[in-house]
Amino acid sequence: MGCAGSKPRVDESGKKLRKPKPWKHTQPLTPAQLKQMRDEFWDTAPHYGGQKEIWDALRAATEADLPLAQTIVDSAGVIVSNSDLTLCYDERGAKYELPKYVLSEPTNLIPVG
């Protein structure tokens, strides 16, 4: 039983996620080009090391809203080093680095239409 003013313990894996900071790609991208880059990354991500299940959880988290993404990474046991998900670890210490283009859209995305 804790004191009235005590706070619940938050371990390192419980770091609260936040939206990535705005970023700009070296060249303007169309939505189709951005999708292709993302698909290529996720298709090759398991070859960078780590567990496929963690890569799958990270992909699901990047495609979800923040509260659901938080639940996904917490449930998968992902240790979030950078709260924007650019750097994470699994419980075995394997490193997972995510490029900004899988986390959000660039500021210089070319609108369709």
Describe the fold and architecture.
Mean pLDDT is 89; it is low at 5-13. This protein has a three-stranded antiparallel sheet, with no helix packed on it. 32% of the residues lie in helices and 7% in strands. The protein is globular, with a radius of gyration of 16 Å. It has helices spanning 31-44, 52-62, 66-76, and strands at 79-80, 87-89, 95-97. It is mostly helical. The chain has a domain at 31-101: Ub domain-containing protein, DC-UbP/UBTD2, N-terminal domain (Bacteriocin As-48, Chain A). Residues 15-110 form the DC-UbP/UBTD2 N-terminal domain.
State the main characteristics:
DC-UbP/UBTD2_N_sf; Bacteriocin As-48, Chain A; mainly alpha
Short synopsis of the structure:
With 113 residues, the protein is mainly α.
* Low-confidence regions: 5-13
Beta-strand segment tally:
3
Q: What is the CA–CA distance across the termini? A: 59 Å
Biggest sheet, in brief?
3 strands, antiparallel
Please state the overall shape, judged from the principal axes of the Cα atoms: globular
Seen as an oligomer or otherwise, the chain set is single chain
- Report the CATH architecture of the domain at 31-101: Up-down Bundle
| Strand content bin | 5-15%
Structural class estimated from helices and strands: mainly alpha
